Amino acid sequence: MTLVQLRNAVTISGLDDRALRVRAVEAASTYDDDMLTMITHAYMTVASRKGARTSRRTLEAYALAVKDYVRWAERTGVSVLRPGRRDGGRYVAHLQTRPSQGRGRSGPLSAATAAQYVAGARALYRALSWAGATDAHPFQDAHVAPDPTPGIVKNPPYLHEIDQVLPHCDARLAALTLLCAHAGLRVSEALALTAADVHGASLTVRGKGGRVRRVPLGRRVRDALNAAPPLDADGRLFDWKYAQATYRMRKAFRAAGLGEAWRGFHAARKHSGTRLYQATRDFTRVGLFLGHASVDTTRRYVAVQDNDVASEVEFF
């Protein structure tokens, strides 16, 4: 998502009712996915529940979803403004059966990815309704069935891999690894850090939805940060984009003989959550540490042993 797109979305939100409706109707009639994306961004920015606090990551995800849905509608002859009552379900079925197209993955789209695409398509229709272009809601009764296999099983936390890969990381990559695996940061949160966010034994983290939390730093994380001084006068600790950080981590895993074990940065965050739960046995404290809004989310980040309550039930 570019700055130009954001500016255009702000401009669109300032149109009067008639001009906004005309723009939306024209874009939908011509399957103009760029304009429909900007109208959706405008709606998200000024009329959605989070408004201007909507995260850039959410806007980027919804942009991909809007473009995907509009292109599918054009290919299949579905009218964006007047979809059939079963078209929402048809698009869901398309998502559930098409192959994944991103980051070297194979097989069908995951249930979570399909749900994200449907959420973006729903946002498009809320935006078109906000613009006065249509009252259609083809996804009102369309749902993506959840994956029956828990995420903690499909993508379990790293265990011994963290200590094995660290000797193959340079100082800055080691700091990033430990920020995710020991401090529990999302990789996007870690990459955005500056020296001003580090306060001795704690860290100020700006997470999803603009939420700010204070994270305690263990000795190993503090030492790793001290070994990776700021890169510039702005105090940036990293100058990598996500893809660049992923490339470096994949390379380090291969150097450690763990090429097949690489499961992304999220498995490092789950490593942190699992270890903290083993120490505290408290999902609430783990959730606060990880920056989760719901303990239900935290449960998906913690690998609990099958015999976790064996000793407790022994003398029932």
TrEMBL record:
Question: InterPro entries per the record?
Answer: DNA_brk_join_enz (IPR011010), Integrase-like_cat_sf (IPR013762), Integrase_catalytic (IPR002104), Integrase_recombinase_N (IPR010998), Integrase_SAM-like_N (IPR004107), Tyrosine_recombinase_XerCD (IPR050090)
Superkingdom field: Bacteria
What name does this protein carry?
A: Tyrosine recombinase XerC
Keywords assigned: DNA integration, DNA recombination, DNA-binding
The record's PROSITE patterns line, in alphabetical order, gives: TYR_RECOMBINASE
In this chain the Tyr recombinase domain maps to 152-314
Q: Gene that codes for this?
A: xerC_2
Q: Which organism is it from?
A: Deinococcus caeni
**Pfam families associated with the record:** Phage_int_SAM_1 (PF02899), Phage_integrase (PF00589)
Q: Is the DNA-binding keyword given for this protein?
A: yes
